Amino acid sequence: MKTISFNKVWLTGNEKNYITQALSEGKTCGNGNFTHKCQSFFEEKLGSCKCLLTTSCTDALEMCAMLAGIQPGDEVIVPSYTFVSTALAFVRQGARIVFADSRMDNPCIDEQKLEALVTPRTRAIVPVHYAGIACDMDVILAVAERHNLLVIEDAAQAIDSFYKGRPLGSIGHLAAFSFHETKNIQCGEGGLLAINDPRFVKRSEILWEKGTNRAEFFRGEINKYGWVDTGSSFLPPEYVAAFLWAQLEALDSIQQKRKEIWNMYYQNLQGISSLSLPVLPDYATNNAHAFYAVCATPEERTALIRYLKSHGVYSVFHYLSLHKSDFVKNQKWEVEELPQADKYTDCLVRFPLFYALEPDEVKYICEQIKSFYTSERDEASFGER
Known about the structure:
Layout: H1 15-24, H2 33-46, E1 50-54, H3 57-67, E2 75-79, H4 84-91, E3 96-100, E4 122-125, H5 137-147, E5 150-154, E6 162-163, E7 166-167, E8 174-178, E9 191-195, H6 201-208, H7 214-218, H8 238-249, H9 251-268, E10 291-294, H10 298-310, H11 326-331, H12 339-347, E11 348-351, H13 359-372
Parallel strand pairs: 2-3, 2-4, 4-5, 5-8
Antiparallel strand pairs: 1-9, 6-7, 8-9, 10-11
C-alpha cells in the first residue's frame, strides 16, 4: 500500500556546500556572511527598515513583545486559532491576552470584531496570516490608528504572499516569520524579525545582541561596546543561516511547485457538499503553505483522518483554540465564546503538501477523499450534522 506522509523535508542540494563554506570561513557563531545575505534578501523583498535572523519565529515574536514595550497589565489582541507562540511571547512580558474569533470564511482573525475588544489597556493587535492567506490589513490598521496601537504581523506561514500587492510581513509595525521544517522555506528551526517602523531599528539590534550595543561596535560607530538594555541570545549560528540561504535561492521554484500541488487539490476536490475548501479573499494571494478543508462535524473529520490513514495517507488537524487551553483557564481570564475558532479546532483537516509530493500522489489522495465521501463512508459514524 502506498504511504504518503504529511510532510517531507526537501533539500535544494546546496545546503551542505554552504554549510561547508561557512565552516571553512571560521565563523560559526552567527552574524556572518550568510546571516547578512539572508537579512539583505528579506530587507529587499519586504522593503523593511531592518531584518534580523532569529533562532525561531517564537524568538522573533518575543523580540516584538520587548520592542513594543509590553508591561504587566497590558492587553494584546490575538486570534484564538493560532499556535501558542503568538500569545506566549506577550504573556512572557506580563500581558493579558484578549482572544479574537476567526472569520466565518477562513481561519484568519475576524477584523470586524476587533474594535469591540479594544480597552484603555490594549497595546497591540497581532494578526496571524493563516496558511499564508492575508488578513484584511486595511481594517486592522484603521482600528490600530484610531486607538494608537501597534500592529505585529505573525507571518510565520506567510513568506511570498501578498495583501493588495504588498508583501505580508511588510505592513505592520513589526513582523515575525518562521523557517521551521514544516514551512515553505526551512532550515530545521529558524525565524526572522522584520522591522517596518524605523523607531524600533536601533533597539532591535541591542536586544538581538544580548542587550549590548555590539552591532554598532562592529560597524565602527563606537570604540567599545557594553551592556545597555535587556535582551537575549536570539541570533542563530552561521551554519543555520548557510542552510537557509540555499533554500532562499530556490524560493521561486519551490513556490511554483507548491502552488501546482495546491491547485491540483483545489481542482480535484470540488463538488463535495460537506467539505468546505479554502476561501481566498480578493485582496489576498496564495503562497501554498497549506491545503486544508473544513468538515461538517468533528465526527466527520475524525472518520476522514482515520479513513485516509487506513489507505496510507497521513492527514492532520491543526490548532486547538487557545482560549480553551488549560493555561488560560488557570489564569482565570474572562473569555468570550468564540464559535468560529472552535469550529476550525473541531473540523479543520490538513492534507499533505510538500515539494516532493508528486502529481500521482496528489491524485491518489484526492481519490481516497472522494471515496470516503461516496461509497465507502459510514454515515452513522459522523454523529448528527
